[in-house]
Design brief:
Length: 604
């Protein structure tokens, strides 16, 4: 039973925040027991011996919180895990004594009228998982909440908080929102976990995932990266000029020797290989909405028709003026470059990839891209256009709205059914696409170079297609998985001694994709190495638990999953020479599919 002292302090806590009519109305009575008699808004432990939750949402409570009266009482401080006071009219400061309630895992005081600063003592609530202070009038700096390692949800949107964002490890968060405050400075690395909606409405905040990038360090010059960071237009400007250079301008320039460069903020040379933007252009441009760069270029009159390096029926009508005017949103900054999403006025969407640090000459890059473009396969996404200068290489793809295989498997759509049949079809289609590319590009040894589930996009028909083919020269997956490097390969197992090494690396990447399809697990999840894990499970104590639970629930036969797993294991062999070729992989998967179809025929 709950002590009389605790009961009376609960009643006075609520009474102070409302008229006592509310206390009676919700059934809190000194003579009854909060746990046994089920006081509204209170939850207790299993033995009904202590109060664990206080949930008083939307009770029209007002006045200021006196946490001392509750938290100074050991019986409460040692058990209260959740305090939920969202949607009231509570005001005044958030009391520092709240932190005496050390067991709090959930503190939710959103949608009130709290003001002043958050007390530093909040950062000492080591058990906090959920902190919601959103929709109040709280100002000042955030306490150093990044020290609470278990924090999973932090909501502080719509306040007047300011200062820098603490160095949170965003990996740990399920939800994070500090939008519409007065935070300033650079956003810490969100590691791809949150998009701009978590940060918008803070005029002085900069950096990814917001579109406006941070002012450059004046000591350094303007690098190619910064040029792009400063203005989406600059990116598209150079893209534009590049395309002009490749297509239309080439002819014109033979005659005139140059393209209206005096009028333009962007200038190019005759080969279209140089696109520069004066640095003064960037220092002032913190947003994408700057018409001046585009206007001058467009005025040059050169950019008047569809200027696409690689023409496709669907992008023939692509107007570069439009592409230029459209805002560019930074979608990702990976190991090998940044990806921007561009939406044109007519609704057409493009993904523009800027590759960094690739020491390939403009001419070689052009040849390479044209060669790749000659191979067509329905499961390989062709580039719509590309551009190359000394400083940067840009590729334009049609934007695929259905996301990637990575997102399908691990993202928010996770709940969506992704059945065995579809997974097998995905595996077969990707294998076919890759095998075709390898076969057709064997003489030049152009591999994909960075095959992974985020590079497998879903078309509008939900078919998988491989994107960004050939954007990396020999990027070996083993870079990422040193555990798998083995100099001592076993000659007996050499199935493809002559397979170019870069192709072997793609086969490895494909094997990992198969493992993701089979296990539903992520490749690199906090030090977890998927191939290594699968191999250890398979070698030691074999268990069906290696497979994705949803496949087991679906009732997929273990035998068929094991067959595909065996293909995957061959692909992730430590020795590149021992891996099968993609043509071999394709036929192995085709056999599994045939078996599958035969068994389905039996079942019906
Ligand atoms: N054409 C496209 N249409 C739609 N989404 C795309 C397109 N290309 C890439 N994406 C998605 O945009 C995000 C960022 O792409 P990006 O290529 O920068 O990431 P990455 O593949 O993880 O990194 P990297 O390729 O540099 O190793 C990924 O989630 C990817 O699936």
């Amino acid at each position: 039973a709950i002590e009389a002292e605790v009961r009376s302090s609960l009643i006075s806590f609520l009474g102070n925040l409302s008229n006592h009519g509310v206390v009676a109305a919700i059934g809190w009575k000194q003579e009854s027991d909060p746990c046994v008699d089920g006081w509204n808004g209170i939850a207790c432990d299993a033995q009904n011996a202590s109060v664990t939750k206080l949930r008083l949402e939307g009770f029209n409570l007002s006045g200021s919180l006196d946490m001392g009266s509750l938290c100074n009482m050991p019986a409460i401080a040692s058990s209260l895990a959740r305090l939920v006071l969202n949607g009231n009219n509570l005001g005044g400061g958030v009391p520092a004594q709240i932190s005496i309630c050390r067991q709090l895992t959930h503190l939710q005081i959103g949608g009130n009228k709290f003001e002043g600063e958050l007390p530093d003592s909040l950062a000492t609530l080591d058990n906090l998982k959920v902190l919601n202070v959103s929709y109040n009038n709280i100002s000042g700096n955030l306490p150093n909440l990044s020290r609470i390692s278990g924090l999973q949800i932090f909501l502080a949107q719509d306040n007047q908080l300011s200062g820098k964002i603490p160095a949170f490890d965003f990996y740990n968060f399920d939800e994070f929102n500090i939008s519409y405050n007065n935070f300033s400075g650079q956003i810490p690395d969100v590691q791809g976990y949150f998009n701009s909606s978590s940060f918008i409405g803070n005029p002085f905040l900069c950096g990814y995932p917001l579109p406006n990038n941070c002012p450059q360090d004046k000591r350094k010059g303007v690098s190619g990266e910064q040029v792009l960071m400063y203005s989406g237009y600059a990116l598209l400007g150079s893209l534009l000029v590049g395309a002009v250079g490749f297509k239309l301008c080439k002819k014109k320039m033979k005659k005139t020797g140059k393209v209206d460069s005096e009028n333009s903020a962007l200038s190019i040379d005759g080969s279209g290989n140089k696109a520069t933007v004066p640095s003064s252009e960037h220092k002032t441009s913190a947003t994408l909405n700057r018409p001046e760069v585009s206007a001058t270029s467009v005025e040059s009159g050169v950019v008047s028709s569809s200027l696409v390096v690689v023409t496709r029926p669907t992008v023939n009508g692509l107007m570069f003026e439009e592409l230029l005017r459209a805002p560019a949103e930074l979608l990702g900054r990976g190991r090998h470059g940044s990806l921007y999403k561009v939406i044109c006025e007519n609704g057409a969407m493009y993904a523009v990839k800027r590759i960094k640090d690739w020491a390939i000459s403009g001419e070689d890059f052009k040849k390479r891209m044209q060669r790749i473009d000659q191979v067509k396969h329905p499961n390989v996404l062709p580039a719509a256009a590309f551009y190359s200068s000394q400083q940067e290489k840009l590729l334009v793809y049609e934007f695929q709205q259905n996301g990637s295989l990575f997102r399908l498997l691990h993202g928010t759509q996770m709940g969506r059914a992704f059945e065995w049949g579809s997974r097998l079809n995905f595996a077969a289609s990707i294998a076919k696409g890759l095998a075709t590319m390898h076969r057709e590009l064997r003489d030049v040894e152009i591999a994909h170079g960075n095959l992974k589930s985020s590079n497998i996009l879903l078309t509008k028909d939900m078919e998988p297609c491989i994107s960004e083919y050939g954007l990396m020269v020999l990027y070996d997956h083993q870079d990422l998985t040193p555990s798998l490097i083995t100099p001592a390969f076993e000659p007996n197992h050499r199935s493809n001694p002559s397979m170019p090494r870069a192709f072997g690396s793609d086969v490895y990447g494909f094997g990992v994709i198969l493992l993701e399809l089979l296990t539903g697990k992520m490749v690199h999840d906090k030090g977890f190495d998927l191939p290594k894990w699968v191999l250890s499970v398979v070698q030691e104590e074999w268990t069906v638990e290696v497979f994705d639970k949803s496949l087991i629930l679906e009732g997929v036969s273990e035998e068929r999953m094991v067959n595909l797993l065996q293909v995957a294991i061959k692909c992730v062999n430590r020795s590149p020479e021992a891996r099968p070729s993609m043509t071999q992989v394709t036929s192995m998967i085709a056999t599994i599919k045939e078996e599958e179809d035969r068994s389905l025929a039996y079942e019906t």
